[in-house]
Design brief:
Elements: H1 2-26, H2 31-52, H3 56-65, H4 67-88, H5 94-101, H6 104-110, E1 116-121, E2 124-129, H7 134-155, H8 160-188, H9 194-219, H10 225-252, H11 257-265, H12 269-282, H13 289-309, H14 318-322
Antiparallel strand pairs: 1-2
Helix pairs in contact: 1-5, 1-10, 1-11, 1-12, 2-4, 2-9, 2-10, 4-8, 4-9, 5-12, 6-7, 6-8, 7-13, 11-13
């Protein structure tokens, strides 16, 4: 029960991202500063965590070996992930983005053939291209159906262009996030833990965030004090606290696939936490019955997907948990 409660707490802090991004947009803050400042603010926290674990020097040695790979996949995994999510916040409420973001499970499954995996055969271990997990993909389609139901309410009130600006960036982010993280895991080859990898990717993505911040300074000026404070809270609560809690929960049940599935499924609570936060803090309109149906379908799909992915017939989804780092 304790790991599940910790997983739910992690989902709560992850939901802070969606609520505060929506809050900053409503207050007139630019998505440029919401995105760039979050990762800039994360660096000192992550450096402290990795240094306390006495893992900072090994990380820096690894980064010096392949700086180009770190910068490329740091940009893809973090830059092309978070900047589009912040951009989408200008066109969709946070709870809707939180629900739509669950499509990353579908995107991640479709990326499987791009990576090599080790399979046990009669002749011994064999390296081969990954296969799309059919059972998991079927469960993912349930999540997709829920997302469509949630989006349907807004499709009737928004122009086609406005709708695309709220959906396409999330779709881009859903592919960029697992792609960047998995490619980085291939580069590291198990030599670094998740905290080191997140810090390394954050540092490697800083050139992009500094360029984005410079563009923001030249076009819209400096962010307000309120936006800087809220972005700091996102960096602290979502980028650090939520990640640490989620790793803690998955580590507690690492040897039990059924319990791991339950912990992973707690992340579907992000949608409800984001919705509750926006209702209480931002006074947004209540979702329609159709949207509520979509929310429940997404949560159901997350639970079923996690159970199927962690059944004895599937490869344990430890990497799935690690891939959520830095969200």
């Amino acid at each position: 029960m304790k790991p599940i409660l910790i997983g739910i707490c992690a989902a709560f802090f992850f939901a802070v991202t969606f609520v505060l991004n929506a809050s900053m947009e409503l207050a007139g803050g630019s998505w440029i500063w919401s995105a760039s400042l979050r990762y800039i603010f994360m660096v000192p926290f992550l450096v402290l965590i990795v240094a306390l674990r006495k893992n900072l020097k090994p990380l820096l040695r690894e980064m010096r070996k392949q700086p180009g790979q770190w910068m490329l996949w740091g940009f893809v995994g973090f830059g092309l992930f978070y900047a589009p999510l912040c951009f989408a916040a200008a066109y969709s409420p946070g709870w809707l983005i939180a629900g739509s973001w669950q499509i990353t499970i579908v995107s991640g499954a479709l990326l499987a053939p791009l990576f090599l995996e080790t399979r046990l055969t009669a002749a011994g271990p064999l390296r081969a291209r990954g296969e799309i997990p059919v059972k998991g993909l079927v469960m993912s389609l349930i999540i997709l159906a829920g997302i469509i139901l949630m989006q349907a309410e807004y499709a009737t009130h928004l122009s086609f262009d406005h709708m695309l600006l709220g959906v396409v960036p999330v779709l881009l982010a859903s592919f960029a996030y697992p792609l960047g993280n998995r490619k980085m895991m291939d580069v590291c080859k198990g030599r670094l833990d998740a905290y080191q990898r997140v810090l390394g990717m954050t540092i490697a993505s800083l050139p992009f965030w500094f360029l984005l911040a410079a563009y923001g300074f030249m076009t819209i000026g400096m962010p307000s004090g309120g936006q800087m404070f809220q972005t700091f809270l996102v960096a602290l609560f979502s980028g650090v606290v939520a990640t640490v809690l989620f790793f803690m929960a998955t580590d507690m049940v690492r040897g039990n696939m059924q319990k791991l599935a339950a912990v992973e499924a707690t992340q579907s609570m992000e949608v409800l936490f984001a919705l509750a936060g926006e209702l209480l803090l931002l006074s947004i309109p209540y979702p329609s019955p159709l949207a509520w149906t979509g929310i429940l379908v997404v949560i159901l799909g997350m639970v079923l997907h996690s159970l199927v992915s962690n059944s004895k017939s599937e490869i344990p989804a430890i990497n799935g948990a690690v891939d959520m780092a830095g969200k």
